[in-house]
Amino acid sequence: MAPPVSTPKSASPSQPSGKSEVTDLKLQLRQLAGSRAPGADDAKRDLFKRVISCMTVGIDVSPAFSEMVMCSATSDVVLKKMCYLYVGNYARCNPDLALLTINFLQKDCHDQDPTIRGLALRSLCSLRVQNLVEYLVAPLAAGLKDHSSYVRTVAAIGVLKLYHISATMCHDSDFPAALKALMLSDPDAQVVANCLYSLLEIWTQDAANSDEAAREIEALYGKSIIYYLLNRIKDFSEWAQCLVLDLVSKYIPSDNNEIFDMMNLLEDRLQHANGAVVLATIKVFLHLTMSMTDVHQQVYERIKAPLLTLVGAGSPEQSYAVLCHLHLLVMRAPMLFSSDYKHFYCQFSDPSYVKKLKLEMLTAIANESNTYEIVTELCEYAGNVDVPIARESIRAVGKIALQQYDVNAIVDRLLQFLEMEKDYVTAETLVLVKDLLRKYPQWSHDCIAVVGNISSNSIQEPKAKAALIWMLGEYSQDMMDAPYVLESLVENWEEEHSPEVRLHLLTAVMKCFFKRAPETQKALGAALAAGLADNNQDVHDRALFYYRLLQYDVAVAERVVNPPKQAVSVFADTQSSEIKDRIFDEFNSLSVVYQKPSYLFTDKEHRGPFEFSEDLSNLAIGGDSGDDVIHSAQRYEENDKDLLLSTSDKEENGGPTHNGSSTYSAPSDVNSSTSLVSSSTTQPAAFAIDDLLGLGVLDTPALPPLPALSLNAKPVLDPGTFQKKWGQLTVSSSQESTLSIQGVASLTAPQSLIKHMQNNSIQCIASGGQPPNYKFFFFAQKEGSSSFFLVECIVNTASAKAQIKIKADDASASDAFASLFQSALSNFGSS
User: Where is it located (predicted)?
Assistant: First the structure.
């Protein structure tokens, strides 16, 4: 029997067959080009779908470009859309092919159908070919005056696309002025929104080098335009409302009555179904009332309900984003949310990232009235099958204990955790008990009675073992087996891989030696010997320090290692107050979700609207170090009666000390007679240690006055040389300066400060920014010399602070120049 004859299958749009398919498509398109036969448009649709399918999966169908253009002569909107999609994809990569599309796109820009006119104009502006910009001007000018609102909407964004291709052509055609007129007169809200968006981007980019653009930006933040947009806000789309509200958040009202009028106008936006609109409105309310403490507190009360509603609605991802903003507010005003603690209980269906955030919020809002309920709930989570959440819940209980006065019940709960036969529960609890004992020494007998029953061999996690060793050393007089437990740990020194544990073990053995010397002497000798032979530099250095300290004077060693201790009142926060304020300034952005300022996670070109010349494009914006943080404003003064938690003007947290990777050359002979006195007094850097040990500090001679410095009134430095020098030179001076009130008021645009510094023989080579942040690169030249001074200056007008970083060819003159620069900056606005 003969096999059945197989019929060839036509290629489907979802399964293109490659080059043969493209050739076949070209032939079929050519046959249909110009055809007006019945059904021709349906056949073109099928072919166009196959072409788009090939293009989508990565097959090069550019050989059919001319045939596609020829088939575009139709009134079918669907065909037009597919043709424009095809043309836009290949025209950007092939400028020669783009020229073929100009004629039919320009023709379609005059089509009777407004949809086709708008699509053609959008595709024409999306070509983004430099040598074709002259063909965009006429269609854009006509589009801005088109009677169809859709075409005007497309044209408004088209002007922005033209600006990015050729800013000169955009300004020569006077499009920004046309957009402004259209924004203030067009009846369609979407057209107004698109005009506003385009103008904001254009003028922001131009503000660095144009006084006129800076004035226009200032006018956008003026009362007349703000009120014009607010009165029409209900007509805008959700995206447009967010744009307008972001603009309003930067407006500074003239008096309190104006603030209340704006808040009353936006009151109903808090009930909007869209979370972005609600968050944008909240940002406006918070920033408007920042200087009005009582009203600011009422705003917190008002925005609680909308935020809690948004948390319970929508997807977990949306809930998380809203919770992050709620978390930020809770951290600033925990007392105002203390009665709503049940809203932050973890649900079984919550993802782990939502649960973790809720635990942090429960920790923050715990107070005397709700601690029992919150701790009871957190203890239930300790047995959660999700181990990370169980760990976080135990830490939350510990944090609450550290911030409360009545901790009896909480300590009992924590000690019960130690009786649970779960390694991670025991490990986390040990770390918390250590912190509790540092703050509440009176609980030592109860805690030590339970901790003493825990075997060190059963603890595997380094932090937990380090906490247990700390308690063995600190309370060795109350723990009968402490010297022997420490001795067994020293004997297994080589098996302990964590440097943290070995460091704690050294200190614990020293403390135990001063309390129970006969029982610990052998263990101390073995620990010091093992520490001196340790490969870890920190462990080696600590062992050597202890050895020499004992060699010098045992009594002094006891005062250093085991002094009388006071209870710790406040534990340092992991996040600085400046960072918290900066995040609050960036409310309703990814900064709140990431819990870090935008400059820490954005690319250099997106860290701010700082414009440089082409030769300066590689200059670092923001720098790589923490010195470049732009300090946020202190929005209001903190007082004892203020319920709102201000993070400004609190104690500064010192940064952690990191051990360098460089090798320390310690003396190999531990029996050397070198004493602490001789080693410390031979090095000026050790004066602080000498003073700490009571050994005296050498008198330091007074510094000579800085020599007078004269600057060249007209220095010349091209951008390329500036960039090269900036990359080669090291920072010779890094300082912070304060601007006067008059200076802050005068800094409405970068140009004003640039002119002032020029009068002081300091020239600007690049600048940019928008309120409240500005960035400048200055340079100056020493009179009668070829040495230059380069300056990076970041100004925050809200905090009236300027971060100054100076690099100099002649480092010896950098201090004198820094004094001169600060003097010029402090005088800004006084004349």
Answer: Endomembrane system
**Angle at which helices 238-248 and 223-231 pack, to 10 degrees?**
150
pTM given for the model:
0.64
Pairwise CA distance, residues 764 & 757, whole Å: 8
Contact in structure between 442 and 478 (CB atoms under 8 Å): no
CA distances from 12 to 7, 9, 21, 68, 438 (A): 15, 9, 10, 19, 73
User: In this structure, are strands 731-738 and 610-611 parallel, antiparallel, or unpaired?
Assistant: unpaired
Q: Specify which residues 733 forms β-bridges with.
A: 806
Query: Under DSSP, is residue 736 helix (H, G, I), strand (E, B) or coil?
Result: strand
Q: Which residues contact 496 (CB under 8 A, 6 or more apart)?
A: 489, 502, 505
Task: Report residues of the chain scoring pLDDT below 70.
Answer: 1-19, 34, 404-406, 572-576, 603-707, 831
Q: Any residues with CB less than 8 A from the CB of 154 and at least 6 apart, and which?
A: 118, 119, 121, 122, 125, 143
| DSSP secondary structure, 612-667, as one string | --GGGTTS-SS-SSGGG--PPP--S---TT--S---TTSPPPPPPP---SSPP---
- The whole-angstrom separation of Cα 195 and Cα 216 is 14
pLDDT of residue 613: 36
Q: How far is it, in rounded angstroms, from Cα 246 to Cα 266?
A: 13
Using alpha carbons, select from 280, 186, 264, 195 the residue that is nearest to residue 227: 264
**pLDDT value for 778:** 92
Give 531: exposed, middle or buried? Use CB within 10 Å, 0-12, 13-18, 19+.
buried
CA 728-733-737 angle, to 5 degrees, is 130
Q: Are 383 and 391 in contact (CB under 8 A)?
A: no
- ω into residue 772 within 30 of 0, thus cis? yes
Cα–Cα distances in angstroms (integers) from residue 202 to residues 164, 196, 244, 814, in the given order: 9, 10, 16, 38
- H or E segment at 742? helix 741-746
